[in-house]
Design a protein that fits this description.
The chain is of the alpha/beta class and 341 residues long. It contains twelve helices and 13 strands. It folds into two domains: 2-168, Glycogen Phosphorylase B (Rossmann fold), CATH 3.40.50; 184-330, Glycogen Phosphorylase B (Rossmann fold), CATH 3.40.50.2000.
């Protein structure tokens, strides 16, 4: 008897890490909708190499190319042959998820919610559709505060459990070394409009003594490179296994997204000892305490973010870095796992 059958999009590394931890205490079966995706930050973003739980993969290709109805047929066959207590789906955006919640009793249905109130439409027909889906859910595992706000807007009355995360980052061994502040800032993510990089580049274009390193690729890459001054460096894609070196070579992580359901890279930055300057529209901003381990800013406030950057000196940086070391990502992740038990 499985405690949970978990149905999720792809084997993203942070999901695999989470399921590995859950499997130490729970009997789980994970069904992945597809093996890979065309939208990822590196080739090793998806992997099952280290999976230590039972799983099935419905489509051996990119998520975007799957046939949802063939997947549903495969799901029916898998579930017909097993016994399980709870069903956990990872969103309301797929035909597969809708099929599942309407073919199971509400008391068994759980939702891992990674959407927030900021990017979700809560009016008109889209509100109605989300409400219909939620009416089939008994328990929601919400990533954080902005996710709970969405549930409140949709008038959800079921059980809500806050996970404070969407998965578990890779945690390679590393030796923390105190740094001398050298005005080196780092961004990691997709180069798209929602990441607000044109805004960030315009700020750093005027700060000639500051260096901004941008890691990632995306549809706006060519344009962003064309407007960036020489103090802004683009490194393209970096494999997950090599990403710790980039954190070590920089002083502060900066994440200006207009909208970001969580932002796992914020956790990665904190794990590797970097203070974080983050948009208030990022779910993981709740891990940041202003002037303690970083700063939270409004994503269109150019004066505010400029002042934050300019007001960090060597003494202030030492305080920020010290406070980052006091935050245990390991402890946060232990609590994330306990929520599912």
């Amino acid at each position: 008897m499985y405690d949970y059958v978990i149905v999720t999009h792809i084997p993203a590394f942070y999901k695999v890490n989470l399921y590995n931890e859950l499997a130490k205490k729970l009997n789980i079966l994970v069904i992945f909708i597809a093996l890979n995706t065309s939208e990822k930050r590196s080739d090793d973003f998806t992997t099952l190499k280290n999976a230590r739980f039972e799983y099935k993969v419905l489509f051996d290709g990119n998520f975007q190319n799957r046939d949802a109805f063939k997947n549903i047929s495969k799901i029916k066959q898998i579930l017909k042959e097993i016994n399980y207590k709870k069903l956990l789906v990872s969103g309301w955006d797929l035909k597969e998820f809708w099929y599942l919640v309407f073919t199971h009793s509400k008391v068994r249905n759980c939702l891992a919610l990674e959407s927030t109130v900021l990017e979700s439409n809560t009016k008109g027909l889209k509100r109605l559709v989300k409400s219909i889906f939620l009416n089939r859910i008994s328990t929601v595992f919400a990533s954080g505060k902005l996710h709970v706000e969405l549930l409140e807007k949709l008038n959800y009355k079921g059980n809500i459990k806050i996970t404070k995360g969407v998965g578990i980052i890779n945690k390679p061994d590393f030796v923390y070394e105190s740094k001398i502040y050298q005005k080196r800032f780092l961004f990691i993510g997709r180069l798209s409009k929602v990441k607000n990089l044109e805004f960030l580049i315009n700020i750093f274009n005027d700060l000639k003594d500051y260096k901004l390193t941008i890691i990632g690729t995306g549809e706006d890459e060519k344009y962003l490179k064309s407007i960036a001054n020489k103090n802004i460096v683009f490194l393209g894609t970096i494999e997950n296994k090599d990403i710790k070196n980039e954190f070590k070579e920089n002083d502060i992580f900066i994440f200006p997204s207009i909208s970001e359901p969580w932002g796992l890279v914020v956790e990665e930055a904190l794990y590797f000892g970097l203070p974080v300057i983050v948009s208030e529209n990022c779910g993981a901003s709740e891990l940041i305490e202003n002037s303690m381990n970083g700063y939270i800013f409004k994503p269109k406030d150019s004066i505010g973010i400029r002042d934050i950057v300019l007001n960090i000196d060597k003494m202030k940086y030492d305080v920020l870095a010290f406070n980052v070391k006091q935050l245990s990502i390991d402890n946060k992740d232990k609590l994330q796992v306990i929520v599912y038990e």
